[in-house]
Amino acid sequence: MEMSFEESLAELEGIVEKLEKGQLSLDESLMLFERGIKLVRECNDKLKSAQQKVEQLIEENGELRTEPFEVEGE
Amino acid sequence: MVFEEKGIYTVHEFTLAVKSILTSGRFNDVWIRGEISNFTNHNSGHRYFTLKDKSSSLQCVMFKWYGKNLRFEPEHGMKVLVMGDLDVYEQRGIYQLKVRDIRPDGIGELYKAFEQLKNKLAMEGLFSPEHKKPLPKFPKKIGIATSPTGAVLHDIMTVIKRRYPANLLFIPTIVQGEYAAESIARSIGLLNKTDADVIILGRGGGSIEDLWAFNEEIVALAVFNSRIPIISAVGHETDYTITDFVADVRAPTPSAAAEIAVPDRAELANHINRLGERLIENKRRSIKDVMVHISELKAGVEPRLFLERLADYMQFTDELTQRQSLNIQRLLEVKRSLLNAHAGKLDAVSPLGTLLRGYSITLKLPEETHVRSIGDVEKKDELSIIVNDGKIKCKVNDKEVCTWK
Fold it and tell me: Are the beta carbons of A71 and B268 separated by less than 8 Å?
C-alpha cells in the first residue's frame, strides 16, 4: 500500500526530529538517514506529479455519479 | 345544481359554492405582503393572526404541521411575506389564508429573524467550539457547493489549482432566492455521501436578502450535521451569516476559503527540502563525531603508534649521542693542532736542530758532563763529541783561551 503524501511527510518530519535529538547508534542513524532521503524524494515526486481532477457531482433518480467538469472560459 | 332547481341555497350550500370558487386553484401558492397583528400561538399548536396593510386585512391560520418549518417566531407588528392557499372557514363563513410559510420582509425584520435564530441555535449549542471539526492538512478531494455561474467557483478553483493539486468535486447549488436554502442543505447532504474530505460552501457578496438562505435553520442544521468539515465563505469579509457561525471554519472570502483549504505547494516543497538539508547536515555531523571518536580511541590503544613513538625516542637518543661524539672529535682535533704547534716550537729549541745545523755537543767522559768552558777539561781528558750522525771519541791535547765576542 503506497503511503499518502501526508503520511510520507509526517514520517519524514519524525525522522528528522529523531535524528536531531541524537542518542542513536551510528547504524540506526544511517538507516534513518537513508529512509529520510528516500522520503524527501518521494514527497517531492508526489508533490510534482499530483494531477488535479475536477468533477461535478450529479444526482439522478437517487443515484450519485460524477462527471468531468470543465470550467467555462478555460 | 341547487340554484337551478329551487333558486335558494342553504347557508352551507352557499358557503360550499363560494368555497369551490375560491379554492379552485386561482389562489393557491400565493405570496402576500403585510403586517402581522393579533397574533395568537394557540395551545393546539396552530397559529392565528391577521395580515393587514393600511386599507385591508386578511385572516390567516398556520397549522402546526407547517409551523414546524418556521425559521423565526412571528410577532405582532412584524412585516412579513406569507405564502399559502386561500380557503373558506365554513362555520364562520369567512375566507382565510391557510399559511404554509412566513418570511420576514424588510431589512429590520430580517435582522430580527437573524438574531432570533442565532440565539436559538447558540442555545442549542450549534456554535460551540467542541463541535468544530478540524480541517485535513492535506485534503485529497475538496467538495465545493456554490453557484455554477459567478466568480466564486472560478476564484476557488484558481487558487486551489495554483497552490495545491487537490481534486475538486463541484456540486451546482442555488445560493439565492426561494429554493436556495433547500438546495444548499441538499448539496451538503450529497457531498457527505462522497469521499470529499473538506467542503467549501461559498457565495459572493450581496445584500442581507441575497445572503438570506445562509441564515436559514435548515442550512445551519445541514452544516452542523455534516460529517465532513465545512469552510463557509459567504459574502464579503463584513458579512456574517448563521452558516458562518455553525461552520467549522469561516473564511472572509471564497479565495481565502481556498487558501485555508489547501497548503501551498511551493511552501511545502521548501519545507521538504529544508528537511532534506537537515538530514544531510545531521549525517555529516554524526559521521564527523564518530571519526573523531575513533581516532581518539586509536591514539589511546594502537601498538604501532606506540612503536613509532618509541622509534622517535630512540632516534632522538642516537642523534644526541652522535652530536656528543662530534663534539669530542672536534675537541681532539683542536688539541692535536695545538700539540703540533707546540712540537714545532720545541723542535726549534732542541739540541738536535743545532746538531743538524752543523754544531756539536761536547761531553766529558766518563761523567758525560756538558763541556761549556776550557776550565771544564784538563789535558789528557777523554771527550765524546756528539754530531749530527754519531759520536766522536777524542783526547784533549791542549787548551787555549780565546775571546769570540
Answer: no
Tell me the three cell numbers of residue B309: 613513538
What pTM does this model have?
Answer: 0.58
* Contact A3/B at CB under 8 A: no
- Rounded Cα gap, residues B245 and B242, in angstroms: 5
- Encode chain A (74 residues) as per-residue pLDDT tens digits: 678 888 898 999 999 988 888 788 878 888 888 899 899 998 888 888 777 888 999 988 888 888 888 765 44
Best B163, B272, B273 member to test A by mutation, with max A CBs in 10 Å, is B272
Q: Quick check: is B323 in a domain? A: no
- Which CATH number goes with the domain that contains B224? 3.40.50.261
Torsion over CA of B288, B291, B295 and B297, rounded to 10 degrees?
Answer: 110
**3-state SS assignment for residue B264:** coil
B269 → closest Cβ in A26, A47, A51: A47
